[in-house]
Amino acid sequence: MSTKKKSHYFWLFFYFVISITISITLVTSFRNTRIELKEKQEQYKVNFNNWNN
Fold this sequence. Notes:
Mean pLDDT: 87
């Protein structure tokens, strides 16, 4: 196994780890924003009902 091949595998692994980290971060942030949006919608509904009454 040559050093060139080793470094090639290292970079592949490196990119693999980075892409997984980025995707996990994106997914969790997306989920958090969706939950926050839902909570805000509920708050708006409550406020709207209070205004009507």
